[in-house]
Amino acid sequence: MEIEDNIYGVEEIKEDVLVELINSPSVQRLKGVSQLGMPEKYFYRKSYSRYEHSLGVLVLLRRLGANQNEQISGLLHDVSHTAFSHVIDWVLGDPTKEDYQDNNHLRIIKNSEIPSILKNYDFDYKEISNHENFPLLEKEAPSLCADRIDYSLRDLSQERGDLSKLFFKDLDVKENQIVFKTKNIAESFGEEYMKLQAEHWAGNQARTRYHILSEVLKKSLEKKLICLEDLNKTDYYVLNILENSRDESILESLNLLKKGFQTCEDENGILLKKKFRYIDPEVYVNSFYRKLSELSVEYAFLINEKKEQSKLVRRVKIIPN
């Protein structure tokens, strides 16, 4: 199998276990789950699927020399995502933590075809499902890890593909930690990550759309138009039900997402909550790796500034286009 990725290039997959897992229903389902929470039809910018991200994490781990167990874990790290990705945290979880998927990861894998596939190749699904076993794949923020790096590069590539490739080429692994080789490139990556957080991941447009869609999903569950099991399918499966529901309030909200809107600050408006993300990349200097904030006073100041800004309570009013 060949994977053609717009950031990492062509990667040939020869391992039977990886090919079988990629072709499995659990991984293939991710083609219908948007990384950014909803399909482009209802979002304000170009999106990509959890499937693309999962393959990207796999390729990145391979390029960084991860062992096969970690590669498998990377490929499968998002199979527990429901339809609409982190929008579900606004429906059933906590939007400031975005951990609904993580809390259900082992259960979803256990009840899928994945354990039997892994068993055929002498892999233990419980070990593979525990991300604490794999420090290149997952690390607590604000450290670098393959998951965090890939979605950042993928979002950035929509506007600055050349920059994404520059960041990727500067990555290295030291003592089981992903690091940048160059301080200036690490600083540029950190600043771009902060910009994505402010302008997109936690921007008013994204958060307002998450709020609108989450209210639609809550209402649809209450009216029994959909059930929780439907959310374990794809964005398109659920949207097809909603679009054909003939429920005026639901159709009105979907139409608002489709046609678009503007927002303005309003103390009586909608309260927008979202997880605060930031990155403090590790840089390899003088035979040791250190946090960028230890090497750059300016970057340490930027982190503190963004943290304080994230504490501000924001309410917005929606103005339809």
- What is the topology, as strand order, of the major beta sheet? 1-2
Q: What is the alpha-carbon Rg in Å? A: 20 Å
Largest sheet: 2 strands, antiparallel
The named CATH superfamily: Hypothetical protein af1432
Number of helices: 16
CATH topology: Hypothetical protein af1432
User: Could you give the distance between the termini?
Assistant: 45 Å
Q: Which structural category do the helix and sheet elements fall into?
A: alpha+beta
Proportion in β-strands? 5-15%
Q: What can you tell me about this protein's structure?
A:
This protein is of the alpha+beta class. The protein is built from 16 helices and 8 strands. Strands 1-2 form a two-stranded antiparallel sheet. Helix 10 (146-169) packs across helix 11 (183-201). The model has no long low-confidence stretch (mean pLDDT 95).
Which helices and strands, and how do they pair?
Elements: E1 2-5, E2 9-12, H1 16-22, H2 25-28, H3 50-63, H4 68-76, H5 88-91, H6 100-103, H7 105-110, H8 114-120, H9 125-129, H10 146-169, E3 171-174, E4 177-180, H11 183-201, H12 204-222, H13 235-243, H14 248-259, E5 261-271, E6 282-285, E7 288-291, H15 292-295, H16 297-310, E8 315-320
Helix pairs in contact: 1-4, 3-4, 3-10, 10-11, 12-14
Short note summarizing the structure:
The protein has one domain: Hypothetical protein af1432, CATH 1.10.3210. About 50% of the residues lie in helices and about 15% in strands.
Main features:
two-stranded antiparallel sheet, Hypothetical protein af1432, alpha+beta, 8 strands, 13% strand, 321 residues
